[in-house]
Amino acid sequence: MMTETKYWPAEDSSSGLKEAAAALAAGGVVAFPTETVYGLGADARNTSAVAKIFEAKGRPSDNPLIVHVASETEAESLAESMNEIERRLARAFWPGPFTLVLPVRPGAVSPLVTAGLDTVAVRMPSHAVARRLIELSGCPLAAPSANRSGRPSPTEARHVTEDLAGRIDGIVDGGPTGVGLESTVVRVVDGVIHILRPGGVTREQLQAAAGPDAPVESGEREADASATAGPRSPGVKYTHYAPRGEMLLVTGDDPEGVVAAVRQEAADARREGRRVGILAAAEHAGRYEGAADEIVVCGSRRAPETAAQRLYAALRECDGLGLDFIVAEGYPEEGIGSALMNRMRKAAGGRERVVGKQGVS
Ligand code: TXA
Ligand code: MG
Hints:
The protein is an alpha/beta fold and 361 residues long. The chain has helices at 13-25, 47-57, 72-78, 84-93, 111-114, 128-137, 157-164, 203-210, 255-271, 304-320, 336-347; strands at 6-8, 30-32, 39-43, 66-68, 98-103, 119-123, 141-142, 170-172, 184-189, 192-197, 216-217, 246-251, 276-281, 294-299, 325-329, 352-354.
């Protein structure tokens, strides 16, 4: 089914936002900017509206959605309860790139939003356009990232257009997003803070806000990983964030070793006749001249937040360049670097060469 997709530019934000909010209140699906990535929103209480999100994205129906709110009161109206640790985290990180999985208040949202679970994921974004849109629409907004399922998340309105034009009611263009990676999804169980998906709020920040009596457990869990106990996030089992070409991630503690391995992998692939790109850290881009058909700079090793901001756009650039093999260098896994590497590993579909060890896993 093709629909006419309206476009509301940021300069036109006051009247545009009102039209977008009216479309949402009437059961439409509208893409909008947040500080992490663009979301595809619909009234979380309206089952037929939420169904359109799954249809437009081609998203599996067992993968639940995050509900976006503009106030603490609205968050509380969706949850059955919030304990002391959850309140502490909400106070520290809302509004912001932080999502809390809470016991759902029966009837508060469509069962499609929760995919039949007894919990609901709630987030209060800090982006001014997102907040205004939620307020104007008067709805809690269910909103996954506004990409076709499996593609890199959109960090600019034109990425949404690429994936979803003709499939949704409108796009609000608020310019490039800030963080560039999705929110951190957290669930608190028995006093332990579980990171279900690493993101814009780091493990270090969570631990500092939670205090010493509430430990933070990293390591996302898949819904079907039967051997592991504890909370799980259905979404993490699906292929995500992937470019069209095959990607190989090269990691290791020694930057010189990584550069040499990247050059070697690129040379091997070119010998096989593949069109090869290197996804490079800014500091190393000069070292790859002539080593591949295209060099795409992701961001700085010294400032991994710049790589986080650019990763998804860079992956889409690789597609635009028609690359069929992408060798990507990894980043140090501290702070935002752990969310960055989580997404890069997914984009690579698990293909990783760890320099200093033998072979490719
Ligand atoms: O930054 C973000 O979080 C963006 C922007 C638009 O807000 N949204 C986003 O949504 O990334 P989405 O749908 O692409 O990812 C939602 C994640 C999935 O991994 C999903 O499995 C998990 O949150 N999730 C949602 N509800 C859940 C629940 N009740 N229990 C456990 N995990 C849940
Ligand atoms: Mg997504």
